[in-house]
Amino acid sequence: MSSLVERDRGLLWHPYAALDGPAPYAVTSASGTRLRLEAADGARFDVVDAMSSWWCAIHGYRHPALDAAVRDQVDRFSHVMFGGLTHEPAVRLAEQLVALAPPSLRHVFLADSGSVSVEVALKLAVQYQAATGRPGRRRFVALRGGYHGDTTGAMGVCDPEDGMHALFPGLVASQVFLPRPPALPSDVDSWVAAAEEVVAAHADTAAAIVVEPVLQGAGGMHAYRPECLAALRRIADEHDLLLVADEIATGFGRTGPLFAVEWAGVEPDVLCVGKALTGGYLTLAAVLCSGRVASAITRSPQRALLHGPTFMANPLACAVASASLELLPTSRERVPAIEAELTAVLKPAADLGSVREVRVLGAVGVVQLDGPVDVPAVTRAAMERGVWVRPFRDLVYTMPPFVSLPADIAAIGAGIVGAIGEVHG
User: Fold this and answer.
1) How many other C-beta atoms are found inside a 10 Å radius of the C-beta of residue 221?
2) Would you say 193 and 157 are in contact if contact means Cβ atoms under 8 Å apart?
3) What is the top EC class of this enzyme, as a single word (predicted)?
């Protein structure tokens, strides 16, 4: 009988991978912070998941409370349309999100995924501008180095040249881009001056400024100064633009604060969250907006936010998201310790000749090389050291589950440093 990996090859496309590319690893089980994997050559691995399954499994795998939430909701009903109907899991989750979010954000739209939440936020901004008498404001100001998803509108506000969507210039709308915000305090003033100039030149046609607060994720794991975010809030206000904060990767404590906008002490007009929202169990995202924005939409001729996914507010996803948020205060207590532990265990990487920089923010650790990572080789070398990582570009990074113990973080550090040393020197 063919192995699972053999059956997969040439049949399934995997993210940003060719059909005949390197063989994936088969997952045989997962629990806590660990994955059990099998390679195409039959090798088996028991590894610490350094990625939280792309940053969403913050409570680990098979958490009893989350398993119970899904089972309990299945016994009631798994899905109903949200058009004209409502249900307890959706209302409870929205109440929780409003209680956690910055105070001005009072209204919730539940979407299918992070990328879809960005699409909704863009449409919301355009509808808002039209509702307030500025229908010509349909473009967006975004940041170089940013990443907001793979759907068409979201692609438009990703970095147009260095991002993953440069092959689609005729498909996505042309937007306005500010330079990548700086990491050094000494560079902030000049960056702010440039941002002010660019936004002023395009304010009459722009609906919103779209940013990943403080940490740009898939665009390069780049952390920038909170003063830049504070400046964007001020600039948006000066030109009557909305500030859209994409916290799909950073929300729920990944950088330390509950939301990354807290680093700058600002409140966005629109907030997108996803990934960790359900603890990695089901796909779900949310768009929160201020009362000012919601009131303008309600007063408009359409009166509604013009979006309505089939699986909007799926009860299973809402139920497990609610349970995940209940676990969050306890899980988040480990983030400061994880930051300190990652700083210590990744420090030796700075002594490797292939390493350009090591940086840590909250439960995010990044080792940037001086050239592209040999992804298959580094992945296998890390697995042989008991760690699952998924490098990209010139980065070997980790976003471990919040429930990771010190021993897990030590293993992650040793695995990353050892794999880079073995493959790249």
Assistant:
1) 22
2) no
3) transferase
Residues contributing to the annotated binding site for pyridoxal 5'-phosphate? 114-115, 246, 309-310
Spatial contact of 365 and 398, defined as CB atoms under 8 Å apart: yes
Edge-to-edge, what's the strand order for the sheet holding 105-111? 105-111, 285-290, 270-273, 242-246, 206-211, 139-143, 176-178
- Active site members: 16, 147, 246, 275
- Residue stretches of the annotated binding site: 54, 114-115, 147, 246, 275, 308-310, 390
Across-strand partners of 395?
A: 368, 392
Residue 156 carries which side chain, given as an amino acid letter? G
Tell me if 116 sits within 8 A of 314, measured CB to CB. no
Torsion 219-407-67-91 (CA) sign: negative
Work out the angle at residue 16's Cα, subtended by the Cα atoms of residues 11 and 17, and round it to the nearest 5 degrees.
Answer: 45
What is the residue-wise DSSP string for 197-260?
A: HHHHHHGGGEEEEEE--SEE-TTT-EE--HHHHHHHHHHHHHTT-EEEEE-TTTTTTTTSSSSG
Question: pLDDT digit of tens for each residue in the chain (425 aa)?
Answer: 579 999 999 999 999 999 999 999 999 999 999 999 999 999 999 999 999 999 999 999 999 999 999 999 999 999 999 999 999 999 999 999 999 999 999 999 999 999 999 999 999 999 999 999 999 999 999 999 999 999 999 999 999 887 667 788 788 889 999 999 999 999 999 999 999 999 999 999 999 999 999 999 999 999 999 999 999 999 999 999 999 999 999 999 999 999 999 999 999 999 999 999 999 999 999 999 999 999 999 999 999 999 999 999 999 999 999 999 999 999 999 999 999 999 999 999 999 999 999 999 999 999 999 999 999 999 999 999 999 999 999 999 999 999 999 999 999 999 999 999 999 99
Helices first, then strands: H and E counts in the chain: 13, 16
pTM over 0.85: yes
Under 8 Å between Cβ of 147 and 180: no
